[in-house]
Amino acid sequence: MIEIKNLSKIYATTGQQVLALDDVSLTVKKGEIFGIIGLSGAGKSTLIRCINMLEKPTRGSIAVDGREITSLGMGELRLARQKIGMIFQQFNLLSSRTVFDNVMFPLEIAKVPRAEATKRVQELLELVGLTDKAGMHPGQLSGGQKQRVGIARALANGPKLLLSDEATSALDPQTTRSILKLLKDINRQLNLTILLITHDMNVIKEVCDRVAVISNSRIVETGDVLDVFSSPQTPTSHSFVNAVISHEVPAELLHSSTERNGETATRLIRVSFIGASAGKPLISSMVRRYNVDVNIIYGNIDRIKDTPFGNLTLEIIGHPGLLQEALDYLRGQGLEIEVLTNA
Ligand SMILES: Nc1ncnc2c1ncn2[C@@H]1O[C@H](COP(=O)(O)OP(=O)(O)OP(=O)(O)O)[C@@H](O)[C@H]1O
Questions:
Q1: Which residues contact residue 161 at a Cβ distance below 8 angstroms, ignoring those fewer than 6 apart?
Q2: Which top-level group of life is the source organism from (predicted)?
Q3: What share of residues in the chain are helix, strand, coil (percent, to 5)?
């Protein structure tokens, strides 16, 4: 759905040049929810604004639904933008218009006949759960309701792609969850591709299929959300993942391994469980097969989008020759194993 190749953006201000995007390449597939996460100033807004040409790239190419958009003329660009919806952190509603007329606005611009447009607005307000607020003005709505209007407006022209620029950053956690659920629902119902930018790993965890991590204007990691959560490859990804799933084991636990004699050895390991493996009794089966003892040091289980995901820190005690086999067994069952200490 989106194919970005070698995209760079330099802002030239008086006497200064800022490299906001540095050779960014990215593919977003049709029908997926793709997240871009990065710290403030990393280049997220610049990237999303380049995708609908609110910013003109300095170098590189961007194809949306098979069409290169960096070289379109104004007329063609206007038509292309009608198929790209966008929602914003500050909602960007027209305060003097009612909810109904805000959603109507893009249909007026696209010159959709009034009767057809009215029907469409009614359907959209129903989709976002605001039918009873049609006659109100944005100033009379909560933040979550305003964002629902923003979503209905973004969907008015039947876009194939929805861009979300920190759409939940101004909302409380509960409202954030309800807006993210709405995005998930419309992604499924309408098979709409969604690209969102955020600085909040919880947003990635709740709704995204894949994620790209952006740091200092460059993409440093891209992958399935489950893979990035279970095994982040870069320090930036590590710190985002740790912000929502604690992987840190307290130092005193790392050093307090069980008393042992020459016959036994211990390994402190972290086991990540994903999807179906989270439901299997793999640890007890390892204990029986390899005659090892297991101490649970720390554990939690969570959900990433709709998949169970957990991690356990375990101390495994057993015959030195069998410990490695025991770990290989767990790996063979599809678990991600990280050895924290050997003793
Ligand atoms: N119009 C502009 N003119 C000059 N520099 C800009 C402009 N817009 C952004 N920048 C610079 O480009 C870099 C990337 O900014 P960008 O807004 O894309 O980051 P961001 O990741 O979206 O940050 P935030 O989460 O704070 O919005 C920053 O150094 C910023 O100062």
A1: 1, 2, 64, 65, 83, 84, 85, 192, 193, 194, 195
A2: Bacteria
A3: 40, 30, 30
Residue bearing the CA closest to ligand 1, atom 11: 20
pTM for the model stands at 0.84
Tens digit of each residue's pLDDT (9 = 90 or more) over 175-185? 999 999 999 99
Distance CA 12, CA 94 (A): 31
Query: What is the whole-number distance in angstroms between the Cα of residue 45 and the centre of ligand 1?
Result: 7
Domains in the chain, CATH or no CATH each: 2-244 (3.40.50.300), 257-342 (3.30.70.260)
Q: What is the DSSP letter of 32?
A: -
The answer for residues whose C-beta is within 8 angstroms of residue 201's C-beta and 6 or more apart is 37, 240, 241, 243, 244
- Overall average pLDDT of the 322-329 stretch: 91
Check if 85 has its Cβ closer than 6 Å to any atom of ligand 1: no
Tokens found for residue 113: 């006949």
Per the CB < 8 A criterion, the answer to whether 319 and 272 are in contact is: no
ipTM entry: 0.96
Whole-angstrom Cα distance, residue 53 to residue 50?
5
Structure tokens at 207: 């709704």
pLDDT in tens, 287-314: 999 999 998 888 877 888 888 887 888 8
Provide the 3-class DSSP secondary structure of residue 153: helix
Closest residue by Cα to atom 4, ligand 1, is: 11
Q: How many CB atoms lie within 10 A of CB 32?
A: 15
From ligand 1's centre to the CA of 21, what distance in Å? 9
Dihedral of the CA atoms 130, 133, 138, 143 (nearest 10)? -50
Angle between the N-to-C axes of helices 143-155 and 99-109, in degrees from 0 to 180, rounded to the nearest 10: 20
- Residue-wise pLDDT for 137-159, tens only, equals 999 999 999 999 999 999 999 99
